[in-house]
Specification:
With 189 residues, this protein is an alpha/beta fold. It has ten helices and four strands, in the order E-H-H-E-H-H-H-E-H-E-H-H-H-H. Strands 2-1-3-4 form a four-stranded parallel sheet, with helices on both faces. Helix 2 packs across helix 8 and helix 7 runs parallel beside helix 10.
Length: 189
Amino acid sequence: MNNPSVLYDANVLYSVTICDILIELAISGSFHAKWTDAIHREWIENLIKNRPDLSRARLERRRKKMDVAVRECLVVNYEHHIPNLTLPDLGDRHVLAAAIEAKCKYIITINLGDFPVNTLSLYGIKALHPDTFICELFESRPTITLMAFRNVRSRLVNPPYTPVEYLNNLHQQDLIDTAEKLHQNLDQI
């Protein structure tokens, strides 16, 4: 990877565990993370629907912190691409449109089937699962990646996580290969 732009789909921002590491990795400067206000609305609405114990105000604070932490993250003026796009779920066209506008190399998403290879290849874009993306980043920039995981784990204080507990949490979030790679470096996270 050579500092590409990547677009985060709402489903990778939904889980705090996945979101935290993706934001920390973006802060490292190894790539340029992008998203839109519509993507923010999508993960926030889904969390409110599925977790009524979470307040909108709390989620909006998280949103603002993300926007401040990652410079130039918001993609705007992408809507003109939407009418020309065809995807299995028409509701995902805004994600691809934003990736096109931001000249992203990757869309980081859990739902790979929503972004067919033949469609994305027309725009030079590839959909990657966050586990694959993080593993590729780990291969190209191991020190930065390990530092990001150490930083995230060190902020987990209520409750605190041992390295093994943290890796178990990553495994539960379907970051299986990532957890396996990190297991070989427990002393560094």
